[in-house]
Write a structure and sequence with these properties.
single chain; about 425 residues; Growth Hormone, Chain: A; mainly alpha
């Protein structure tokens, strides 16, 4: 994906195609913003968690609270982003949020007390929520106004790329530094990547990439399918985050699998990188609801496999299926919701992300409690898988209701 971005920018630059060049640069900036905020700032905690438990004195319950603090911050940040209006304010808030995210990572490399970690992970969550919604709004609006929505898959692949990098950096770096040193290394990497975001945002400042029709379209009717989509996306937040937080720790604590624990996170990242583009292509070929239902079913299988069949092949297969779907679902859900309400993209994406965040707050703390009571992550992973299947039923029912309402409307129009 990185090579594709570099190629597009260089080709369009040579050809003097200003708009295409501008979109490519904006895409690269959004891509790097998601690497920093999501792939590193949010998900680096997963491979670092076993090291924090080993030398930082974390218990499973405390680890769950740390994750929930981050996701509470994410929910608040996403909600705040919905109230940011105007392209200039979107850019300013995006850059300040990046700065806060990087500082919170560096803080994790310095602070020694659990209470400080709670605060820092909360700040990282607020910043990540803001960055995700604001960058999504900026990039998706620009792509839509130029008829390039399928490229949103490249933008969202930044999350998988960040996960892949952390999956490699963490086990390599732990041979030289402790877990706090790893956070400092990741903060420096994030600072470098944020330069690309700054350049992209500055480049976008000079002209408006949105067409007049995009700027003036208001008062759009809310389709009935949007409500089931929002609820299903909330169930995704509840279901996916168990693997997203505890997969590496669960594998490391399973006899005979501890040697592949770090590799599972690399597999998640590798699968996630191309998945966003591929799922968007499938959504265009079928439709968003059908593609989302398929992705939810595949993810439910990926979540439950590592605890149902604890053999290396099936654990890695589960990691692959999980990685291949969780960002694909995000890409399709946000793109579909934005297409329904193009004039309020940051608001609808903000609502989606807030509901998503609610599930993420509840699940990690609940999983930590279940581990404390049972001594195993088994129940948490099984419940997460069931939650994802419930989302499929909800989307299916919502789609049937939506089609029924459309048929009634079409009949009324023809009759009139």
């Amino acid at each position: 994906m990185i090579l594709i971005l570099i190629y597009n920018i260089s080709i369009n630059w040579k050809r003097g195609q200003w708009m295409k060049r501008k979109i490519s640069i904006l895409l690269a900036g959004g891509f790097c913003a998601l690497i920093v905020a999501m792939g590193i700032g949010r998900f680096a905690y997963t491979p670092i968690l076993p090291l924090m438990k080993l030398s930082g004195g974390l218990t499973e319950v405390k680890a769950g609270y740390l994750a929930s603090a981050n996701y509470l911050g994410y929910l608040i940040g996403a909600g705040m982003a919905g109230f940011v209006t105007g392209k200039r304010k979107l850019r300013i808030w995006l850059l300040w949020s990046l700065f806060a995210c990087i500082l919170s990572m560096a803080g994790m490399g310095i602070a020694d007390h659990y209470e400080s970690w709670l605060l820092l992970r909360f700040i990282a969550g607020v910043a990540s929520g803001l960055i995700f919604v604001l960058s999504s709004s900026i990039v998706l609006d620009a792509l839509a106004s130029n008829g390039k929505t399928i490229l949103s898959g490249i933008f969202y692949s930044g999350v998988g790329t960040g996960i892949f990098f952390t999956g490699i950096i963490v086990p390599v770096a732990q041979a030289f530094v402790n877990w706090q040193g790893i956070w400092l290394i990741l903060s420096i990497l994030s600072l470098v990547l944020s330069v690309v975001v700054y350049i992209a945002v500055s480049e976008d400042e000079s002209r408006d990439t949105l067409s007049p029709s995009m700027r003036t379209k208001t008062g759009a009717t809310i389709p009935p399918i949007l409500i089931p989509l929002i609820i299903a996306y909330g169930l995704e937040g509840l279901g996916y985050i168990i693997s997203g937080t505890f997969l590496v720790d669960m594998v490391k604590g399973t006899e005979g699998l501890d040697n592949i624990s770090s590799f599972t996170w690399v597999i998640v990242g590798l699968a996630a990188i191309p998945s966003t583009y591929l799922w968007m292509a499938l959504a265009k070929r079928l439709d968003y609801i059908k593609a989302l239902c398929i992705a939810f079913i595949v993810q439910a299988l990926g979540v439950v496999l590592p605890v149902m069949v604890q053999l290396p092949f099936f654990v890695l297969l589960g990691a692959f299926l999980f990685g291949a779907t969780f960002m694909g679902i995000t890409t399709m859900a946000t793109s579909y919701a934005r297409s329904m309400l193009p004039s309020g993209s940051n608001r609808v994406i903000g609502v989606l992300t807030v509901v998503y965040g609610l599930g993420q707050i509840i699940a990690p703390a609940g999983a930590g409690y279940l581990f404390h009571e049972t001594g195993s992550y088994h129940a948490a992973f099984v419940l997460a898988s069931g939650t994802l299947l419930l989302a499929v039923l909800l989307l299916g029912a919502g789609s049937l209701y939506n089609k029924k309402k459309e048929r009634k409307l079409n009949y009324a129009v023809r009759k009139y």
